[in-house]
Amino acid sequence: MSAILFLPSQKVISADGRRNLLELARELGLPLQAACGGKKICGRCRVVIEETGELPAPTDREREALRELTERGYRLACETVLCGPARVRIPEESKILPPVILTVDGFGDIPVRLRPAVELCCLEVPPPAVERVTADRERLLKALEEAYGFKKIAVDPLLLLRLPQTLRDRENRVTAAVWNQRELVGLFPGREERLLGLAVDLGTTTLVAYLLDLQTGKRLAVSSTLNPQVHFGDDVISRIAFGQKDPEGAVQLREVVREGINDLIRRVAEKAGVRPELILEAALVGNTAMHHLFLGLETRYLAQAPYPPAVQESLWVKAREVGLAIHPSAAVHLLPLKAGFVGSDIIAGILATGLHRSPRVRLLIDLGTNGEIVLGNRDRLLCCSTAAGPAFEGGHIRWGMRASAGAVDRVRIDPETLEPTLRTIRNQPAQGLCGSGILATTAEMVRQGILLARGNFNPLVRSARLRPGEDGQELVLLREWEALGGQEIVFTQRDAAEVLMAKAAIQAGTGLLQELFGAPPIAETLLAGAFGNVADPDDVRTLGLIPAVPTGKIRGVGNTAGYGACLTLLNKNKAREADRIARKMEYVELAGNSRFQELLMDSLLFPGAQDFKDYSWRGLC
Amino acid sequence: MSAILFLPSQKVISADGRRNLLELARELGLPLQAACGGKKICGRCRVVIEETGELPAPTDREREALRELTERGYRLACETVLCGPARVRIPEESKILPPVILTVDGFGDIPVRLRPAVELCCLEVPPPAVERVTADRERLLKALEEAYGFKKIAVDPLLLLRLPQTLRDRENRVTAAVWNQRELVGLFPGREERLLGLAVDLGTTTLVAYLLDLQTGKRLAVSSTLNPQVHFGDDVISRIAFGQKDPEGAVQLREVVREGINDLIRRVAEKAGVRPELILEAALVGNTAMHHLFLGLETRYLAQAPYPPAVQESLWVKAREVGLAIHPSAAVHLLPLKAGFVGSDIIAGILATGLHRSPRVRLLIDLGTNGEIVLGNRDRLLCCSTAAGPAFEGGHIRWGMRASAGAVDRVRIDPETLEPTLRTIRNQPAQGLCGSGILATTAEMVRQGILLARGNFNPLVRSARLRPGEDGQELVLLREWEALGGQEIVFTQRDAAEVLMAKAAIQAGTGLLQELFGAPPIAETLLAGAFGNVADPDDVRTLGLIPAVPTGKIRGVGNTAGYGACLTLLNKNKAREADRIARKMEYVELAGNSRFQELLMDSLLFPGAQDFKDYSWRGLC
Hints:
The structure is a homodimer.
Chain A: E1 2-7, E2 11-15, H1 21-27, E3 46-52, H2 60-66, E4 74-76, E5 86-89, E6 100-104, E7 108-112, E8 118-124, H3 136-148, E9 154-155, H4 157-160, H5 163-169, E10 173-179, E11 183-189, E12 196-202, E13 206-213, E14 219-226, H6 236-245, H7 247-272, E15 279-286, H8 288-295, E16 315-318, E17 331-334, H9 344-353, E18 362-367, E19 371-376, E20 381-386, E21 407-413, E22 420-424, E23 432-433, H10 435-447, E24 466-469, E25 472-478, E26 489-492, H11 493-517, E27 524-528, H12 529-534, H13 537-543, E28 554-558, H14 560-570, H15 572-584, E29 586-587, H16 594-602, H17 610-613
Parallel strand pairs in A: 1-5, 9-11, 12-15, 15-17, 18-27, 20-29, 21-23, 27-28
Antiparallel strand pairs in A: 1-2, 3-4, 3-5, 6-7, 8-10, 10-11, 12-13, 13-14, 16-17, 18-19, 19-20, 21-22, 24-25, 25-26
Helix pairs in contact in A: 6-7, 9-14, 9-15, 10-13, 11-16, 14-15
């Protein structure tokens, strides 16, 4: 008996002339792939024989699986039995993959064990025996049971249509895609090695699609687009109203968002150079109204107190049933909802940020038309949704706009001259103020004493930039002749009131959750969504948007909704974790809550304002 | 305490002033319906208080459920608690139903316990609580669990779309249709009391639909129509060829048969005066090719040895997936197949005739383009399919036609004059010979010595009715001037050869099964299908179509395929029984079977022919 040295691990085992290299590698606990479980089917357990004595010629299976690689010393471990000493390398591509990393912008890396719900199974299905004919489907299922141990697998009826031909296309070799060890959701002729997943964040304003390689965990492509439903209403309430107007309204809303997602699917597939039919699983997150409109569910009652959703638990539907242009048999998971105004985007956000596993209490705020707030740790999760209004998205603000090229996103006001300095997205000529620009303008006006605590313009401040206008006093941020686009941009008394109202709603909602939680110290505040990534933590603090915590403890965490959806694709246990989060969350209804009303009244103040600390100024408010 | 007398059973129990009449009836074991299990929801436990002392006024629930019936003494047993003596009648409509009877033409009555897969559940779903909002779907499922004990019920996604509105249409009262205690397949506002099932026999030539009331077991309507696929080929092989010709062929075949079934659905629903959406379950049977063409499965390999079906086990698909115009969420059961040429029609036939439960060995023959033969008893079931050709359906016969008005179905030939007497269907002018007419003509020609044992015309017989023609000698059954339609009808030497070949195939197939079974005595021969009902057992015996058994033991049993499908709807256990039958059947492939070839050669004889017993005639054949 002589020694076989495995590289790169440097582990040694005796060549016994009986067991093949796969069996030996397993005994040593080496990370060598074998999707078929050693049944000599999958052709994945490739090794390189770097040094050995005499070696039998490659088998037919090896030649077929490895082709020209055999010339470079590649062999299949399951086919190779050595008697003499040898040096065997397990190449990178044959290793069982370690946990993969999902990078969350601004939040960090989330290690996650790769465990997608779909498994690709390479199979050889024997032809029907003449003496005892078994049907194609039943032979396929038998082969699947024998090679992979899957029992009682259901077969999507759609796959039956072409099943006889698929079995025969590549001489009885097929790759079966099995979902959750219980349903056949794909069948490909020959060997198919790619397995893709699609995560979609259904935002009220923006749709984002992530294409993942579920065998490596790699993010292959990301793409986003304006939610085409905006043409039927900027916010969910106006879309629900549109959907109720006539019987076709809801169908239109459903169809345009599905088309929007399908556009994204085409784009990410093209970017990654893959066929969309290899996408065998999808996960969708969104607020409750977006979820319902996408499915075509009745939304009338979502707009009436107590705002009951039509459904709240996780749903799995077939891609073809919801018109998604991926594999028609693929399972599409709609993550669970919590309430009419706390959707699966928030639950996915908790999943991605790990709020539900955190020993310390943290705060997660998703700022959009509704501000959803979650306060919690591993023991308890409180959530609410405040009708903050669209001010932080640019809505209801005279010169408000979406965060696109030409939107002002940073503002500084000189303390001496009160002259503003503006920065625009992509340095395009200024066209208006996006959310972070509105926040920055308000914060700077508060800092420089232009705005008083209750949101009024300070009548004692004089400047050529200040003037009366239609909506009360206004600050001219950009004069007509200063603007490249010839566009005057002002910030009015009414705008300030809108911002104050919005921030008060968030602040009061957060305050109520803190009280209900027993006023715990908050270790960290996470601002989710695009807004959270661009908002200046100093501005956030100046306006009192969130409880007074050190600025360093405020973080923009990006699209946590989308990341959460990605996580459920990479590891199916995360989908169940989302369900557990949904059940664990305690929803606090703010409508009609008298304590919330009190806190809201108390929050109608900018804490950073000079008069707030100096009561003698009060008379001026 | 005083006595309550229940009628019509005459049972007596004490009125204790505590337990309601439903509880008392249960204690006595009386057959009183209560679909909700006594949870005061369903309103089915109607009783008539015929005599009593003072009685509390009907409750609101009683008034709502019973309306004007309250004036006639009707009450709900679950709402009524009596203290004094009373006489209470359980009216017919409130009784739990006894086993129902399915009548099989020519075969007899099959008692079957009514146990459909779908249950109708009357529910009251409480509105969402303001302090703790639960979604509509989850409240419905909770109510279903509380009232009926159904746990983990899946909800067809389609039902979600209108669920919120349905819940509110009748003040939170709904009727839920639950399939197999595991999936919600229907949801109706208010109280829905009808539950219908549809059985379809997909014949190569004829489609038959049966509409059943699954709450009484009554057959509400039956309708049949020509399978529109006949326009693409008379037999399955030519249709498979058509389906392969171009990619649209299979789609066309699939669509026309689905339209044909939908026409039947409209007709039976109209006859019964019901809405097709109340059909919440369907069962389909047919030969393997019809089954595949209906589903749109690849049929190429069904026409190539060893003729493997694409699938053989039972399939359940949603009505909308196969385009059936019943409730779109209804489960459609396609009964199991055995082989490429032994379909679910045969398995349903075994189920209906009880061959698989019979202590004595019986023979079931379904005569069509293929003659399927089953020989068996409760211990063993052997089956085969013979390519008998379409002679018994009128195919390949000069004046052959389908069994419709004007087809000759009975023939007598005068022994002296050799003048034929013909009977036609509906006494219309003769247009041709249908299967039984062909059988009768051949048998009479054999009896009168016109045809010899090997199928040749007897050259010694002289008659003005006999003459040479294109296809050898021919017998003029109807002269041009005798026919009202002006139509001459003849039976030729070639026709006789076709009949001989067809009967030989059936006889040899039967003979082989008998040998394999160990030559058991055959207690009874059942002829299934329309042909079996009209064929004269004497003719069958004369030609030697089946083994020599007394004529009385030959029975036409009608459309056993359709009856079997009906049985699976009436009692869901019968569907499982069909699966067990399929597994138990042993299929004998005749193609390439040398013993079958020998038997076929030996069977190319008409046993009733005169020369068969008199060897001296042989030289003439």
